[in-house]
Design a protein that fits this description.
By secondary structure, this protein is mainly beta. The protein has helices at about 40-45, 60-75, 245-250, 415-420, 425; strands at about 1-5, 10-15, 25-35, 55, 80-85, 105-115, 120-130, 130-145, 150-160, 165-175, 180-195, 200-215, 225-240, 255-270, 280-290, 310-325, 330-340, 360, 365, 380-390, 400-410, 425-440, 445-450, 465-475. The radius of gyration is 27 Å and the shape is globular.
Length: about 475
């Protein structure tokens, strides 16, 4: 008899005990394999439901085993969790039950844990024939201190034509009593130059402190995660050019933003197995993100008031994929939209240009960096793509040709976004075709040709062939 807890987790009883859920039992021992990288404290916490000393039945034991499996799954350290419960024929000590005169059955448990790679150092490079390149170095440890604490550190050197600089990132997660709940801290520091911001140097430091919940997969296979926390960001806009716009000059010098951030991911994707989750065949994914800066305790010192940063920011992105003809053809449809609403227009109608939206568009670069205005407060984007398998390529290979139509509209307010008459000035569209190859976070190669369909701003378009290669190696 087996009770399936998750598609990779099995609680199994030997046949002799299959139909005796009310039979009282005595768990004599627990044998664990695959946990040598974890501390005794961690294992005792995970096995606590099975280690209880009170009388229990086989049904209780299955429930306790499921609780232990749930604990190990919640840490995000394991790809397989199997628990086998069998008779202990070698246990000779007599056992008695406090609940009845029935002699409890002696059982033993075998817990087999198969963990992911727990530590890695990754070096990567991204090269784009139009926009430039960047280099990155990351360190990831899923099991810091042997208790499933998560540590991720990254350093990036950005040499893109429109944006140059260096960035350091850090993420730390500490599991709570139920490890699907985690305390999260994120840190970042950036020193660089975005030429469109009309200043020689922009220095940004930020920190986030919050709570993350990532429930285990339900029977439908839908994956969901939630993050909520406080964000603190200090931006320094230095050496502003005399010719800079009033918007840039407004934020010259230092400014501090304090905000509440909420983030929800929701979806289910079935991917080409060889792509390691990078190439969807079926399913959907979605992300909803909200930021709110006008919390009562954040207004007391006026740290936001001096720059007028009182706004709420809402953004949604989603995509749906469907395959046909035995996965030889895959159709994808994606949309994105966002809006920033100023909460105190009577005080100031400004929003820091670093908080605005910037939309990446094939054939146009980044909308908001190549317009007459900097960034936008409202946007809408779409992407329709058709992937087809090459005749000479295996169906299991994550190599596909594609044909796509994408577009975006970036505006300074919601009224302009929803007004069809403004499409001629703000709506950009591109048709593309090419070949792409994707494998996890390790390799992505794309060669394509872009036809920008709007040519009113000739200086902003980048038609023609684009080669993009991303390669990452683990050490």
């Amino acid at each position: 008899m087996s009770d399936s807890f998750d598609k990779h987790s099995i609680i199994e009883l030997s046949d002799a005990q299959s139909n005796k859920s009310s039979q009282e039992v005595n768990l004599t021992s627990i044998h664990v394999t695959g946990a040598d990288k974890f501390s005794d404290k961690f294992l005792q916490k995970g096995l606590a439901p099975l280690l209880r000393t009170s009388d229990s039945t086989i049904g209780d034991l299955i429930t306790d085993a499921q609780k232990s499996a749930s604990f190990f799954w919640g840490t995000d350290c394991f790809q397989n969790v199997d628990i086998l419960i069998d008779k202990d024929l070698d246990y000779k000590q007599p056992t008695h039950s406090m609940l009845s005169t029935e002699v409890p059955m002696n059982l033993k448990a075998f817990v087999n844990l198969v963990h992911y790679r727990l530590k890695s150092v990754q070096f990567g490079s991204v090269h784009d024939s139009i926009y430039g390149h960047l280099l990155s170095l990351t360190y990831t440890n899923r099991n810091t201190s042997g208790i499933a604490n998560y540590t991720h550190l990254a350093a990036t050197v950005n040499k893109l034509d429109a944006e140059k600089g260096q960035t350091i990132l850090g993420t730390f997660k500490i599991p709570m009593a139920n490890p699907i709940n985690k305390i999260v801290a994120n840190f970042s520091a950036r020193n660089g130059t975005v030429s469109r911001f009309q200043s020689k140097n922009q220095v940004i430091g930020s920190a986030q402190f919050g709570f993350e919940r990532h429930p285990l997969s339900n029977p439908s296979g839908i994956d969901c995660s939630f993050f909520g926390g406080l964000n603190f960001a200090k931006r320094s806009i230095l050496n502003v050019a005399d010719s800079a716009s009033d918007e840039v000059k407004t934020y010259a010098g230092d400014s501090l933003k304090q905000s509440l951030i909420l983030n929800l991911n929701f979806g289910r994707l079935d991917c080409i197995p060889a792509s390691e989750g990078a190439f969807p065949l079926e399913g959907f994914k979605s992300n909803l993100r909200a930021e709110y800066t006008d919390l009562p305790f954040m207004s007391a010192q006026g740290s936001n008031n001096d720059k007028g940063d009182h706004f709420e920011k809402l953004e949604f992105n989603g995509a749906v994929f469907k395959s046909f003809l035995q996965d030889n053809i895959t159709f994808g449809c994606g949309i994105g939209c966002g809006n920033i609403r100023n909460l105190r227009p009577s005080v100031s109608d400004t929003v820091h240009f670093m908080d605005k939206f910037y939309v990446s568009m094939p054939g146009y670069g980044t909308l908001g960096l190549n317009h007459s205005f900097i960034g936008g407060r409202s946007y809408f984007s779409y992407n329709f793509v058709l992937y087809t398998r090459l005749l000479f390529a295996s169906k299991k290979s994550p190599l596909r040709t594609y044909f796509s139509l994408s577009g975006a509209k970036l505006c300074q307010n919601l009224d302009d976004l929803i007004n069809p008459e403004t499409n001629i000035n703000y709506l950009k569209s591109t048709a593309s075709t090419g070949i792409t190859y994707k494998v996890g976070d390790y390799a992505h190669c794309n060669i394509g040709y872009h036809w920008p369909l709007d040519v009113t701003d000739v200086g902003d378009i980048h038609p023609g062939i684009e080669l993009n290669v991303s390669l990452y190696g683990d050490f």
